[in-house]
């Protein structure tokens, strides 16, 4: 067993928008994977570009999963609003896996929207390039930087207005 320490950079973007407005904005910019359609693409042995074409939204990202933590945790009796999105782009993700498959622990990346107990809304994420710097591979870090910019653009866009 090996233990590696590294430092990740975490971004928190506050907004005056409502939680519902932020969720709607995220889901407008980020495409959603339709798993039955994905299975058809895989069964047809289509190229990876077909997956990106079918599911990536205007942001060039798609979300593979949305975990509505708030809805689940509200069963405690306290209303909570928190959604975690698992986001990526299969074309860049594939290039990153070509460098090292160990990167699968970090990609696809995560973006979280939440409302705190005071009613303030935030979007937060870990900076992708900071997550992969531990591999000490410039090619991998460069690929991750494209995700840095995309996540930043999404976070600023969905929180503005």
What does this structure look like?
This protein has 161 residues and is of the alpha+beta class. It has a single domain (10-159), classed as TATA-Binding Protein. 43% of the residues lie in helices and 22% in strands. It has helices at 19-29, 35-43, 48-55, 69-73, 90-99, 128-132, 138-159; strands at residues 10-15, 31-32, 62-68, 81-88, 109-115, 121-126. It has a six-stranded mixed β-sheet with strand order 1-6-5-4-3-2. Strand 5 and strand 6 form a beta hairpin. Helix 5 (90-99) packs antiparallel against helix 7. The longest helix has 22 residues, at 138-159. The chain is globular, with a radius of gyration of 17 Å. The N and C termini lie far apart (48 Å). 27% of the residues are buried. The mean pLDDT is 95.
Please name the CATH topology: TATA-Binding Protein
Q: What's the pLDDT, averaged over the residues?
A: 95
Strand residue content: 15-25%
Morphology? globular
What's the CATH H-level superfamily name?
TT1751-like domain
Number of domains: 1
How is the biggest beta sheet arranged?
6 strands, mixed
Question: Over the alpha carbons, how many angstroms does the gyration radius reach?
Answer: 17 Å
Low-confidence runs of at least 5 consecutive residues: none
Distance from N terminus to C terminus (CA atoms, Å) equals 48 Å
Strand runs, count: 6
